[in-house]
Amino acid sequence: MFYRTDTNAHGLSHDPFKAIVAPRPIGWIGTKGRDGSYNLSPYSFFNIVSDRPKLVMFSSSGRKHSLRNAEETGVFTASLASRNLAQQMNASSAPVDYGVSEFDLAGLTARLGEIVDAPYVAEAFTVLECQVTEVIQPKGLDGEDAESIMVLGQVVGIHISEQIIRNGRIDMELARPMARMGYRDYTDGGSDVFEITRPPGA
């Protein structure tokens, strides 16, 4: 099959675009508001951008709380959403009012970064502490702003749990990082593909 994206007439029951660009690593973004509130949200529009310097990015569809806090404070964290924390990751995607802590909602421990003033998931196997370098709103061919806004950050600190280090390297079979497939599908880096129903409104 072939279809043009300007008409999006693919004839399928669901838009296949995000299922094609998969698996997508999940950036479990932790931020702190100016009011001191903690925010945690999983982003499947997340990836590494550069190794020198170490840059990562997450993309917010609309002006969500993570974007607001990262813009206002200039920092964020990205925790590893591993298979053993799948349900907590999903719970943290629930749409809640600004100031409500998704850490509490998901039953997770919030810990402040060593360098950046932003919380991360203490139960996570790895964590990236990041300082914002750019906030970009991409444009389409028509010159109009995309609905998504990219936040790029330089990694200034990295946490790694000793539990997943084997023979001088991270053992990915132990870490089992979660990745988003299409639709409701996720994977943990192996052959296992499983569905998670997101909270209402997420």
Description of the structure:
This protein is mainly beta and 202 residues long. It contains five helices and 15 strands. The protein has helices at 17-20, 65-73, 86-91, 102-106, 172-175, and strands at residues 24-25, 27-32, 38-43, 46-50, 55-61, 75-80, 110-112, 119-121, 126-136, 148-160, 165-166, 169-170, 179-180, 185-187, 193-195. The strands form four sheets. A seven-stranded antiparallel β-sheet has the order 3-2-6-9-10-5-4, with helices on one face. The two termini are 31 Å apart. It has a single domain (23-195), classed as Pnp Oxidase, Chain A (Roll).
Topology, please?
Elements: H1 17-20, E1 24-25, E2 27-32, E3 38-43, E4 46-50, E5 55-61, H2 65-73, E6 75-80, H3 86-91, H4 102-106, E7 110-112, E8 119-121, E9 126-136, E10 148-160, E11 165-166, E12 169-170, H5 172-175, E13 179-180, E14 185-187, E15 193-195
Antiparallel strand pairs: 1-13, 2-3, 2-6, 4-5, 5-10, 6-9, 7-8, 9-10, 11-12, 13-14, 14-15
Sum this structure up briefly.
The protein has 202 residues and is mainly beta. It has one domain: Pnp Oxidase, Chain A, CATH 2.30.110.10. It has helices spanning 17-20, 65-73, 86-91, 102-106, 172-175, and strands spanning 24-25, 27-32, 38-43, 46-50, 55-61, 75-80, 110-112, 119-121, 126-136, 148-160, 165-166, 169-170, 179-180, 185-187, 193-195.
